[in-house]
Design brief:
Largest sheet: 3 strands, antiparallel
Number of helices: 18
Strand content: 5-15%
Helix content: 40-55%
Bound molecules: acetyl coenzyme *A
CATH class of the largest domain: Mainly Alpha
CATH topology of the largest domain: Citrate Synthase, domain 1
Distance between the termini: 63 Å
C-alpha cells in the first residue's frame, strides 16, 4: 500500500494523487484540481495550519511531549525555567546554559514604574485581573523601541526574555492592585515560582514560601507551558503572521485564553463546584448536564479522547498541596462528579474525561489564589509556549500572513434601496 491519496473532481473528471506524510497531505492538491476549490473546515477540525517540532500530542493515547520528552518526566524532574528553555531552544540546557538562563530571567523581572503607577492604577478597582493582564502585556511593548525588530534574532531573544521574566511580575501587580495591597518587588534570591508566590502573597517580613507549594506552582507551570495548536496558540500564530511584535501577539493569545471554553475553564470549574454546593446535589447536576442545561466544566477536550495526562499529574499534585494547606472543601464534590461522570453512558459515549482544568482550580484555590486569577496563572507559563510558536513561525519558509478563505452564503447581488422605500 502506498502512502498517497487520490482525489477526483467529478465535475471535471480531473484526478490528482499526492503523498501522505505523517498523516498529512498538502492542500496544494486541491489547488491543482481547481484553484477556486476550498475545504469547508470550521474550527479547523481537519486542518494542520503549520508544521511544528515543539509539542507532540496524541489524544487517543493520552500522550503529551515537549520536544520529545514526556510531560510526566518533565513534571517529575524538571523545573519550569528548564522546561521553558527546552521549549524555546529545542533541547535541554547544559548546566552553564541553565545557570545563564535563570540568571537572565531573574534579572529581567522588574517593570517600568509607569506600568504600575500610571497604567495599572488607571483601572477600575474591581477590574478582572485577566483583562488587566491582557492590556498590560500589550502596553509593555510600548516601553521597548526594539520590540518590533522581530527579524533580528538578538532582539527577538531579548523580547522573549523580557516577556518570560516579566509576566509573573505583571500578574502579581494586577492582583495586588485588585486587593488594594502594596506592590511587592521581585526578589532575585528566589526561584521563578517562589518569586511569583512571594510577589502575590507577601504581607509583612515573616512571609516565606513553603517549598511544597513552590514546587506545585512550578509543576503547574510546566504542565501549562505548551499544548500545540490550541485556540490561544493559533491566535498567537495568526497575529504573529502579520509580523506584529511579541507583546501584542502575546496579548492576543492571552485574549483567546480568557474565553471560558479555553483557559477560563478552571475558573468555571470552581464556580460550578461552588454552585453544586454538596455531594448530594451531584446526581441532579449530572442529569442537568445530560439534558443540556449546563456543561460539565473541566470535562472534555478537542484532542484528548481518552485521558488528559496533565489531569493525572495535577490530581497527584493536588493531594501534595492539600497536605500543607488542608483539603479544599470542594474536592469531595469534584471526586464525586468525576466518579459519576466516568460511569455514565452519556460521558463514556462522547469520550469526555477530566481535562487539565478539572483539578487545577482546586489547587489554585488552596494556594490562596482568588478564582479571578486562575486564567492569569495559565497565561504566565503559556507565554513560553506562545513565544516558542512565534519563533518557529517566523523562521518557517512555508508560512505567510494567515488568511483563510470563506464559503460565501449571503445574497448574490441586489440593488441599494433608498431608505424611504425600505
Ligand atoms: N459537558 C457536557 N457535554 C459535553 C462537554 C461537557 N463538558 N463537552 C462536550 N460535550 C458534549 C457535546 O455537547 C457534544 O454532544 P453531542 O454529540 O450530543 O452534540 C459532544 O460532547 C462533543 O462535544 P464537542 O463540543 O463537539 O467537542 P469539542 O471538541 O468541540 O469541545 C471542549 C471541546 C470545548 C473542551 C468541550 O468539551 C467543552 O466545552 N468542555 C467544557 C469546557 C472546558 O473544560 N474547557 C477546557 C478545555 S482544556 C483547555 O482549554 C485548557
Amino acid at each position: 500500500m502506498t502512502d498517497t491519496i487520490t482525489i477526483t473532481d467529478n465535475r471535471s473528471g480531473k484526478t490528482v494523487t499526492v503523498p501522505i506524510t505523517g498523516g498529512v497531505f498538502s492542500s496544494a492538491a486541491l489547488r491543482e484540481l481547481d484553484p477556486n476549490l476550498f475545504m469547508y473546515d470550521p474550527a479547523y477540525l481537519s486542518t494542520a495550519a503549520c508544521a511544528s517540532s515543539i509539542t507532540y500530542l496524541d489524544g487517543e493515547n493520552g500522550i503529551l511531549r515537549y520536544r520529545g520528552i514526556p510531560i510526566e518526566q518533565l513534571a517529575e524532574h524538571s523545573s519550569f525555567l528548564e522546561t521553558a528553555y527546552l521549549l524555546l531552544n529545542g533541547d535541554l540546557p547544559t548546566a552553564d546554559q541553565l545557570a545563564k538562563w535563570q540568571y537572565d530571567v531573574t534579572h529581567h523581572t522588574m517593570i517600568h514604574e509607569n506600568m504600575r503607577k500610571r497604567f495599572v492604577d488607571g483601572f477600575h478597582y474591581d477590574a478582572h485581573p485577566m483583562g488587566m493582564f491582557i492590556s498590560a502585556t500589550a502596553a509593555l511593548g510600548t516601553f521597548y523601541d526594539d520590540a518590533k525588530d522581530i527579524f533580528d534574532k538578538d532582539s527577538l531573544d531579548k523580547q522573549i526574555l523580557r516577556l518570560v521574566a516579566k509576566v509573573p511580575t505583571i500578574a502579581a501587580m494586577c492582583y495586588r492592585f485588585s486587593q488594594g495591597l502594596p506592590f511587592v518587588s521581585p526578589d532575585n534570591a528566589l526561584s521563578y515560582g517562589e518569586n511569583f508566590l512571594n510577589m502575590m502573597f507577601k504581607i509583612g517580613d515573616d512571609y516565606a514560601v513553603h517549598p511544597t507549594l513552590a514546587r506545585a506552582m512550578d509543576i503547574l507551570f510546566i504542565l501549562h507551558a505548551d499544548h500545540e495548536q490550541n485556540c490561544g496558540t493559533t491566535a498567537m500564530r495568526v497575529v504573529s503572521s502579520a509580523n506584529a511584535d511579541p507583546y501584542t501577539a502575546t496579548s492576543a493569545a492571552a485574549s483567546a485564553l480568557y474565553g471560558p471554553l479555553h483557559g477560563g475553564a478552571n475558573e468555571a470549574v470552581v464556580r460550578m463546584l461552588s454552585e453544586i454546593g454538596t455531594i448530594d446535589n451531584v446526581p441532579a447536576f449530572i442529569e442537568g448536564v445530560k439534558n443540556g442545561d449546563a456543561k460539565l466544566m473541566g470535562f472534555g477536550h478537542r484532542v484528548y479522547k481518552n485521558f488528559d495526562p496533565r489531569a493525572t499529574i495535577i490530581k497527584k499534585t493536588a493531594y501534595e498541596v492539600f497536605e500543607v494547606t488542608g483539603k479544599n472543601p470542594l474536592l469531595d464534590i469534584a471526586l464525586k462528579l468525576e466518579e459519576t461522570a466516568l460511569k455514565d453512558e452519556y460521558f463514556v459515549k462522547r469520550k469526555l474525561y477530566p481535562n487539565v482544568d478539572f483539578y487545577s482550580g482546586l489547587i489554585y484555590q488552596a494556594l490562596g489564589f482568588p478564582v479571578d486569577m486562575f486564567t492569569v496563572l495559565f497565561a504566565i507559563p503559556r507565554t513560553v509556549g506562545w513565544l516558542a510558536h512565534m519563533q518557529e513561525l517566523l523562521s518557517d519558509k512555508d508560512q505567510k500572513i494567515s488568511r483563510p478563505r470563506q464559503w460565501y452564503t449571503g445574497v448574490d447581488t441586489r440593488d441599494y434601496t433608498p431608505i424611504a422605500k425600505r
